[in-house]
Amino acid sequence: MKKEIAIIGGGISGMCSAYFLHKSGYQVSIFDANKIGVECSYGNAGLIVPSHFETLASPGILKKGLKWMLNPNSPFFLKPKLDLDLLKWIIRFNTFCTTKHVNENKHFLKDINLYSLDLYKQLKQSSDFEFDFKNSGLLMMCKEEKTLKEEQALVKEAKEIGLNAEILNSDDLKKLEPNATFNVLGASYFKDDSKIQPYDFIIAIKNYLEKNGVNIYENCLIEDVNISNGKVVSIVDSSNNDYSFDQYVFTTGIYTSKIAKKFNLNLPMQGGKGFSFITEKNEALDFSTPMILAEEKVAVTPYSDYVRFGGTMMLGVNDLTINDRRINNIRKAANSYINGLEISESSMKDIWAGLRPCSPDGIPYIGRSDSLSNVIIATGHAMMGVSLGPATGKIVSDLINENNTDLNIQKMNLNRFT
Prior knowledge:
Elements: E1 4-8, H1 12-23, E2 27-31, E3 47-48, H2 59-69, E4 76-78, H3 84-95, H4 99-125, E5 133-134, E6 138-142, H5 145-160, E7 165-169, H6 170-176, E8 186-190, E9 194-196, H7 198-211, E10 215-217, E11 222-228, E12 231-237, E13 242-243, E14 247-250, H8 256-260, E15 270-280, E16 291-293, E17 298-302, E18 306-315, H9 324-337, E19 349-358, E20 365-368, E21 375-379, H10 389-400
Parallel strand pairs: 1-2, 1-14, 2-10, 4-18, 6-16, 14-21
Antiparallel strand pairs: 3-9, 5-9, 6-8, 7-8, 11-12, 12-13, 15-18, 15-19, 16-17, 17-18, 20-21
């Protein structure tokens, strides 16, 4: 008889976990508090980013410090409020904003992103489901000389750890993207980076899993767990329905912290609120390489018929309301970097907000609970949830199969703050 596995959380980590577990022969059920695919992964820029080998907690963030964190128009903003958990998180975060911390983790972050990229390629080559994947590269577009120098140093470091990267001047950019022009001095170009459309990818997996006998419970909020003899024996939804399985995987993003406390786990996280919108392709947007507008931290991902713009990291905010100021800041940034672009407020569609689950050290939490033998947790991916989706799913599957993981995952252990 097949062992039964419950996946709580139907974002990209949960769906990839379900896929790899199904392929391993388990009977899988997925529970999501909403419709599958509409939470944090939905409005994501869709980038797979080996280039992001620096942790979110980095000296660059610390340098900007209060200049950014108390400026409501900055890319990285802290909404002041009396919240002990937020204060503890900020203190921890600041202790990790060191060159030493970045250097200790850059190889791991590079390796896990490349591992996930390879899994995306394998999924693309399989006949299980179709999705749009492009090895597109990524441009970090720089308006200021200071920023370009910082990118030059990052490119040098990227090459040292085995990534394919270079600096492009304005002529190089014209050769790469001949149909568009940009108001920048130059850019770094990370050739290993790639892109997908996250929602389409998740729905493709969902359709495949449903056709192959995986149970999917949408609009089903899991509120509690029953524990006995060192195991979770069942999960309980908001209507007091009880579900029993052999093993349980929690991939519920920022909301995982609450349930983890029942497992005597301390998983400090803050929701890094971000926003995005799409606009139809036009002459100014006739380019195919995704980019990040470096000074404004705005991601720009072109697809065949539209472009998604996203950005902002707001801490201390745990709702999904749309902040018009933030949306307009993204719009204005895009207009100032891309020549001829005049995005109006009325042309912004599919306006979205999401809460990225951010650990204070910038490293995800993935592992098996020490106290509960049949519980695995995978969360804390911050802005790399889509990038690390397949890697997370494969690691979860290996843990349940009691196989050695392809990567050493000790850096992501669940007990590092307990």
